[in-house]
Amino acid sequence: MELTTMIVGLLGGLAIFIYGMKQMSEGLQKVAGKKLRRLLASLTGRPLRAVLVGTGVTALVQSSSATTVMTIGFVNAGLINLSQAIGVIIGANVGTTITAQLISFRLEEYAYHAIIIGVFAFLFARDRRKQYLGQCLLGFGLLFLGLGTMGDMMAPLRDSPVFAELMATFGTYPALGLVIGAVVTILVQSSTASFGIMIGLAGAGALDFQTAIPIILGTNIGTTVTAALSSAGANLTAKRTGAAHFLFNTLGSVIFVGLIYLIPDFTLWVETFISRLSLLAGQQPSLERMLANTHTLFNIVNALLWLPFMGVLKRGVMAVIPGEDMTIKRGLTYVDMRMTETPGVAMDQVDQEVVRMLEISQDMVDEAMEALIEGDRELADRVIEKEEIVNEIEEDLLEFLAGLSGNNLSEDDLRLRDYYISLVDAIESIADDADDLADLALHVEEHRLEFSGEAESTLKDLQKRLNELLKKSVVMIEKQDYKQVPDLIKAERDMDSWQLDYRRQHMERLKEGVCEPAAGIIYLEAIEDVEHLTDQLADMAHTMMEL
Q1: CA–CA separation, 97 vs 204, rounded Å?
Q2: pLDDT per residue over 294-320, tens digit each?
Q3: Helices then strands, each counted (H, E), the chain
Q4: Which of 204, 233, 246, 495 is the most exposed place for a label (fewest CB within 10 A)?
Q5: What 3-state class would DSSP assign to 233?
């Protein structure tokens, strides 16, 4: 077989294999995606539970990359913390070996059966669930079709003296095999695809057990790149999660390779042990099955060794990536849903939660104004993320307040409940205004608009005034300080008057050609948002007066 034909065939088989794996993983995620995401998001602080969840989710979706990316997304959103994320990632390393076990059975003869059934179900089934299952079957068939193609293309390599010499070099220098495994996995963006190539080589008789071990360990390192890339634009804790994934996999692999160098005939001992283990399990110790069992055993042992030291790993990544994260906890912090039958305690908790909600909104307004003035995309994106958090707090708080038993509420409690409902509504509107300002900031950044000196000065002045007013509103609610009420009501009236002045001044600048028309439109929209924001502050003050 010509070299060109072999390379094209190998790459074609690899492409089919990767595409099939992607289809199978996507189908499985569509079948159980929401449940899996809820499972990940509902983790408790117990490390073992997190590891088991990571293992189970990865075994179901057939992709450790999908699990780690989902986990980093949850960390970035504040749904789970770093300790829980580390547990999930450790479990994902174990779960991903299920795919390796699957492909080691060499079910190529059933590939076309699965493709036929999968295509018919995917294209013609009316039930979406059946369509997704059809996608899984299609992916399964393509995976084994690609695996068979790679095996056929690599068969001549067993008779190649050059390839035999290369494999001998890897056997002599395990560290080189480790690097090769990592590099190939980085290139194909899948440790399972790398393992599939090894299964093809093993089936063709071109790879032996002792040479394959370091390469398998290298794939564990290469697969961490996906997590690192997904955490690149995320918050500090998400970056630490990606770093924990890299450290966990790399240290385990490097230590194992170190044992190969330190202990004579270590890989031979492992081969004997895995062979006997396979026989005890009633399996014929074929090379493909032994490689899959070694992969699984290594990841299980690595997970068990690290489980007691998850705290050490956490402190390690925090030392490598220092700093204080600004992640805001999603959902309610102070309110306990079990307190609906004790309104007195419940109202105290609601008060703390409302203050927290207002403080988040206060930060949003300040950051949105800063983003608008400076054209800062990162700051604007942060405001938009926080707006989702405020919306979640509003929904949870209103659900809690609505759930308070009417029979157990005194007249004072009923009045207090209505007071908090009004406050929550006003605060959510403030967050919406901040979100609108952030959208304007994104428009400014995308179109590279510049405000005139006078307009920028006005926006900075408004930013300062809003910050002072929002601080007063926090004091008013937190301490029930009625002294702040007149200032907030007066600010709303002043802003109505100022808005007219700002418009008049803007029209004069426009006539003089001092400002850009496009920037002027954004400026006027920002003034309207600020005016609406002061309306909400005045509404909160009036609500306080009625209490």
Answers
A1: 22
A2: 888 888 988 888 888 888 888 888 888
A3: 22, 0
A4: 233
A5: coil
Write down the residue that tokens 């004091």 correspond to. 475
SS3 127: coil
Task: Give the DSSP letter string of 236-294.
Answer: HHHHHHHHHHHHHHHHHHHHHHHHHHHSTTHHHHHHHHHHHHHHHTT----HHHHHHHH
Closest Cα to residue 248, out of 63, 86, 58?
86
Whether 94 and 55 have beta carbons less than 8 Å apart is answered as yes
- Specify the amino acid at residue 355: V
pTM over the 0.85 mark: no
pLDDT single digits (tens) 332-374? 777 766 666 666 677 888 888 899 999 999 999 999 999 999 9
Distance CA 83, CA 66 (A): 19
Task: Give the Cα separation of 34 and 40 in Å (integer).
Answer: 10
Nearby residues of 306 by Cβ (< 8 Å), 6 or more positions away: 90, 248, 252, 313
Radius of gyration of the chain (CA): 30
Cβ atoms of residues 503 and 515 within 8 Å: no
Picking from 272, 314, 316, 274, the residue whose alpha carbon sits closest to that of residue 298 is 274
